[in-house]
Amino acid sequence: MNPQDISCVDARSVVRSTLSEVCSALQPTQARRLLEDALLVVSELTANALLHAGGVTRLTSRVTGGRLILEVSDGSQAIPTNRQPERGVPGGYGWGVIHRLCARVHVEADEGGGKTISAALALP
Q1: CB contact burial 13-28 (16+ within 10 A = b; e otherwise)
Q2: What is the pLDDT of residue 106?
Q3: How far apart are CA 124 and CA 117, in angstroms?
Q4: How far is CA 5 from CA 1, 15, 49, 86, 110, in A?
Q5: CA distances (Å), 60 to each of 6, 26, 44, 85, in order?
Q6: Do the Cβ atoms of 97 and 43 come closer than 8 Å?
Q7: pTM metric for this prediction
Q8: What torsion, rounded to 10 degrees, do the Cα atoms 85, 91, 93, 99 define?
Q9: C-alpha–C-alpha distance, residues 70 and 45, integer Å
Q10: Which helix (DSSP H) or strand (DSSP E) does residue 122 occupy?
Q11: N or C terminus of the chain with fewer C-beta within 10 Å?
């Protein structure tokens, strides 16, 4: 698959695969909460790359050090910011949601001119 063709559906599939073993070892409510939070975060990161940055250039998902690490790269060096949601206008909530759900969020400029957003969710 061409990285530019990565959709939110593809990104969620990657996360489900990454978490399948982790979730099987958790209590059902913990597994559901972790999976729902991770799917929301990767959906927001991917949607933002698609809407505001020309698409996803790289997507990684891995479990390490008691955390799920999601990394989404795109071709824009513009740093995401919180914006005030406007009544009747869609959007404006995603970046804040990502920060509320994640233990750590980091944005790093890539040498090739884009950026990578790394989001870490704590495992139960």
Answers
A1: ebbeebbeebbeebee
A2: 97
A3: 22
A4: 7, 17, 12, 30, 20
A5: 12, 23, 15, 29
A6: no
A7: 0.92
A8: -130
A9: 9
A10: strand 115-122
A11: N
Structure-block tokens of residue 19: 């978490």
How does pLDDT run across 47-73, given as a tens digit for each residue? 999 998 999 999 999 999 999 999 999
Which residue type occupies 41? V
Can you give the three-state secondary structure of 27-89, one letter per residue? CHHHHHHHHHHHHHHHHHHHHHHHHHCCCEEEEEEEEECCEEEEEEEECCCCCCCCCCCCCCC
For the chain, the distance separating the N- and C-terminal CA atoms, rounded to the nearest angstrom, is 32
CB-CB contact of 118 with 102 (8 Å): no
